[in-house]
Amino acid sequence: MKILLISLLLIFAPAIVTKAQDSRIQMSSLDHLVAKASQTIDVNIDERLIRISAKFLSNDDPDEKRVKELVNGIKGIYVKSFEFANDGEYSPADVESVRAQLRGPGWTRLVGVTSKKDGNLEVYLLLEGEKVGGMAVLHTDDRELTVVNIVGPVDLDKLAALDGHLGIPDLGIEKPKAKKDEQ
């Protein structure tokens, strides 16, 4: 459980924000899928649990210290994931209940990937001026529906720095690089 918690905390890195509660997505409309799913993951980590977990991280270990800095400011991490034995066990309306919220004020779709093999992946940010006040990831395929919601600040530079490190998969996030002269 500690590894799952630390992995989730590492994936989504915080900064500073004032309107973190506005970035919480309501996922209760998906609760009826529990009865249909062959596997369900439901993660609800509020600010209190994040602070408690961060206390167990060492300032002496560079990786743990980095994680501790990253989780500072996060108000919550919420995940609902459903795997189904058969295709079509959730409806487009289920996905739309989440997408409709992500069309609200401040939300911007950052990434949209469609793949016949791997399904669809969408990444949304709640922008508050120049800062990112929340993040949502929506993944769908024929037999899976997953929603990840980070409530609070997300520092994309820190997230990019962790890309492919500390057990975090390579998400393909790149920092802007200085342009090289063409030869």
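(ticket continues) Second input and output from the same batch:
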Amino acid sequence: MRNSEREAAAKEAADAVRTITQLPFPFEHDDLGPIGLELGTGWGDVLQVENPCRIRLPQIPGFSRLRNLEGHARELVVGRVNGKQVIALRGRIHLNEAPDDNTETLKMARLQIEMLIQLGVKNLILTSAVGALKPPTAGIGHVGCDQLAVGDICVVDGFVTLFAPQMPLWGGEFCSPEDTLDEHLQHFARISACGLGVHIGSHVMLLGPWFEGRKNDKRLLAQTGAKVVGMSGLPGACVAALYPGVRVLFLCFVTNDDVEAHSHEENLARAKASSPKLGGYLERIIGRI
């Protein structure tokens, strides 16, 4: 897809949101602009959005072929959180959703971010559910003091991209997604913990939807320095990296450790059970931006 076609698609999607909501994006006399949210499993279930306007994603041009995915609402929510205007994606498009139509999936994965940027988003919060990785041991019997447990949150400060699938970028779009991760936003995330187990660390992305092997893969992935492994986040940061001035905060909720048997159902249940604290955490961060 040429740049002109991509830009036209993002503008058409953003214009449709303006028409449906009857709101003037970007907002006049608002240097901050709306805060963009990409809400992963559990993160948006109880987020307190004032006067929300909800739009089903398939109503927006470019998303008509979107499929249903368990645990994902597939909607765009516009409103206010803690006094700030937000545009929230509830149910992002994952790169592993349609292996029989990879090109269309890549287009939608990119469009969901560029649509937000077209609507004036300068601060983008990405969220997801992830698995924890055990830090490499320093010796026999040593236990890493900074190992994440189920229920903890990882504020991502770096990416391991060696194992990542094809990103929604086209030839010549050289960028550094890690450079979008903003230290000021990370600071807000740290001081908003209020008793939550919040850690700082790197994220490694695998395509999925299969889970990584516990016996060998997790040990290898931990050797890269990553603290968590997941199937999303990096694509959004890659697209945001094409737009100077867009800052990214990537937050991950740990749903499983590095040794237990994988269960998608259990991961969903744990994320949903923690929705109240995740929603409150997001609200505190948004209030500081």
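Agent notes: The two ends are 34 Å apart (CA to CA). Residues 3-21 form the longest helix (19 residues). Closing as not reproducible unless the customer responds.
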